[in-house]
User: Fold this.
Amino acid sequence: MSLAPRAVLVHRTTEYEELVARHGTHGQAAFFLSSRGRDIEEVAERHRRARRALAEVTAAVPLNWRQALLERADLDRFLFAPEDVVVVVGQDGLVANAAKYLDGQPVIGIDTDPGRNPGVLVRHRPRDAAALLVSAGGAANELTMVEAVTDDTQRLVALNEIYLGAPGHQTARYRLGLDGDRGVVETQASSGVLVGTGTGATGWLRSVWQERGGTLPLPAPTEDRLLWFVREAWPSPATGTSLVGGGLTASAALTITVESDRLIAFGDGIESDALQLTWGQTVRVGVCGRRLRLVG
Assistant:
């Protein structure tokens, strides 16, 4: 017999829970915030909304389905199964956090705080969960992802963007080229390289794009095209600034050869889960063959 679907409910610790954990009690957390001119009730109310949403979505799971409750911090240790339906209850960024660990499972984004979240990826309300779960096996939006692969087969996947640079905001030194050393290659010193998708074009990638004057067309979330930008490239006798931005189609890749003692590459803002890159190592960044299947 085939297994019944499993609803994996992904959530994150709330700001209120983090404050109470840090300060010990509600009262001590309230005193800490009040000493800085803040009221804990605002944070507590967001916590209550998030927990009500999670409870409502949990109750909407069909009785014959299995369930798993997954906190964001445990994503990298959780084994997703092919029959899972992933329900992200929280912010847009939580969908991106989960995306890198999935391989074709449908994802439903539930917004716990409408009006505060942009709702780009968490497009639905808790009351819609029951109908969405039943129809999750149907059509879905196939969102493009970006991947980085090193010459020693390390691999990193992200939904929004991949950043490659030096830890601690130091200068990153590397050689950058398009489609390997057969094309133009430039030695650079910069604040790092950002490669983003159409989904990422609503976040960090868009801010860099705007600073550059918005001359390149932004990709759509489902389009097999990426944009890349070099941040603050430094001109010198040994380093250039002619390759500082462009697009990548599905058949193209950006090649970066490390010329620093240590660089890192991380996706979607999670620096704790980064590729560690050393002198002479090469990494190729391009469109990922996997997609995020977002329902609705």
In short: The two ends are 29 Å apart (CA to CA).
